[in-house]
Amino acid sequence: MGPVRESIVKGLVPPMRPVPREIARPEYVGKKRAARWGGGDVHSPELIDKIRVSAKLAAQALAEVGKHVAPGVTTTELDRVGYEFVLDHGAYPSTLGYPGSAGRPPFPASLCTSVNEVICHGIPDDTVIQEGDIVKVDITAFKNGVHGDNCGSFIAGEGSERSRKLVEVTHEAMMRGIKAALPGREANVIGRVIEKYAARHGYESVRDYTGHGVGPAFHTGLVIPHYDAAPMHADVLVPNMVFTVEPMLVDGSQDNLEWDDGWTVVTADGSWVAQFEHTVLMTESGPEVLTLP
Ligand code: MF3
Ligand code: CO
Ligand code: CO
Fold it and tell me: How far apart, in whole angstroms, are the C-alpha atoms of residue 85 and residue 141?
């Protein structure tokens, strides 16, 4: 057996980057928790046009950050790239200052970097990316009062065939889940399709973290599971709804632990994970992916 990549450990997190006053912030920045959204998930055409702008920007930011994933680069350097891109386009990076669960600090960075066995919510720090790492970058842009949210998995260098397969299958699982989302169907159809496809390839689809309604709130309260949750999560999908689909597939067991930083979620057995996320608009004729560059 060749050298085995050591597990991911907590690194040094730089102070929160400042945001110029002229950039409008989401309501939760500086507060203990985000306000509960009571406006539902079906939006006006005018609001949807605004979400289109934020979603496109988030997708462009993700592509830009993805170009910088390479051996030798730190995850905080990726954060800098995302931060600068989003600010340069007049938007606020939604995760920066996002409130944590009770008693936990707010998220300190402009994107999440979740490497290898980190399932999600990894905090950018001085961790140096190594050849073959799977780096999940999750970045969200807030502009004109609405959020667009997306995530991609990038392999540093070539990676193993096993990692490449995990990444490919996870992307395909997301796309199949999105395509199964049709008006009149229940939200739980999405996860049913994702979980089935994952299992076919020997992967587990994480249950503890889900997709969500997105737009005027970062997380509206609508939950989109990535597993077969029926008869739960039976919200009927209707035109003008906007939500994310963001499966995390595990090459092993999805049992997980949260670090004492209040954010980083890792697999208990060290299994590696891939994730993709799109912000999706439901139209009369079916799903439309909004997070395209
Ligand atoms: N972008 C993540 C999502 O898809 C949320 C990250 S919240 C953070 O829902 F605080 F961890 F950044
Ligand atoms: Co999301
Ligand atoms: Co996200």
Answer: 10
For atom 2 of ligand 1, which residue has the closest CA?
138
The verdict on the CB of residue 277 being under 6 Å from ligand 1 is yes
220 lines ligand 1 (CB under 6 A): no
Tens-digit pLDDT profile for residues 101-150: 888 999 999 999 999 999 999 999 999 999 999 999 999 999 999 999 99
Beta carbons of 30 and 22 less than 8 angstroms apart: no
Residue from 29, 123, 138 to probe ligand 1 pocket by mutation (most atoms less than 8 Å from CB)? 138
Distances (CA, A) of 214 to 14, 105, 131, 204, 243: 28, 23, 34, 25, 5
Distance 162 CA to ligand 3 centre (A): 24
d(CA 43, CA 272): 37
Supply the pTM of this predicted model: 0.98
Within 10 angstroms of residue 270's Cβ, the number of other Cβ atoms is: 14
User: What's the 215 CA to ligand 1 centre distance in angstroms?
Assistant: 14
